[in-house]
Amino acid sequence: MSAGPPAVGASRRNILVPEYRRELTRAELTVLGLLVERPRHGYDLEQVIERRGIRQWTDIGFSSIYYVLTKLERRGLVQVQVPEAPSAAKSRRVFQATPAGREAARLNALALIEEPRPVAHPLLIGVANLPLLSEQEYAQALRTRLAQVEDRITAVREAQQGQAPLPLPAREVFWCSPIR
Which residues form a coiled coil (predicted)? Predict the structure, then answer.
């Protein structure tokens, strides 16, 4: 009896896995998740990413949105709704998740929620090198960091209040953060 394809995150060497079962990068899952919410064009994706502060917790640049969309389209996870006008700008093409894309987003989101993964934080590299700093430098660096964290907390709260009501995924990001 076959055990079926490996779970997301499992070793896939020499195994053919359907596209929707292959692990997505964080940028791919972020874009695909926004398209599962509703079809969007590239500029709309950029606006939502900016408005929701998504760049605070994932690496997705403005210039990479169309690259990610092209990758997802090649894998059959999104499809393009071509505007009626033959000369319509490429940037106004509307992308929507396919059924395989919805399943890929679901499986990858589930894996990220279920499976604890190590998170590398640059602060730890700095702390590991404390012998290079004087006590005064370290104390000042912590005060500077605290001021920046407090500024970020204020910005996140303002963003949260300015976007009510938020869709469930965005609400959960704000709820899960220590900034309430």
Answer: none
Domains of the chain, each with CATH number or no CATH:
1-117 (1.10.10.10), 120-180 (no CATH)
Q: Which residue has the tokens 């709309």?
A: 44
d(CA 118, CA 177): 18
Tell me how crowded residue 155 is: count the other CB atoms within 10 A of its CB: 13
**Helix boundaries (H) for the chain:** 26-37, 42-51, 65-74, 99-114, 122-128, 135-162, 168-176
Of the candidates 67, 70, 86, 87, the one whose C-alpha atom is nearest the C-alpha of residue 78 is: 70
Query: How many Cβ atoms are within 10 Å of 51's Cβ, its own excluded?
Result: 12
Query: Which residues contact residue 64 at a Cβ distance below 8 angstroms, ignoring those fewer than 6 apart?
Result: 27
- What does pTM read for this prediction? 0.67
pLDDT tens track for 40-74: 999 999 999 988 888 877 888 888 999 999 999 99
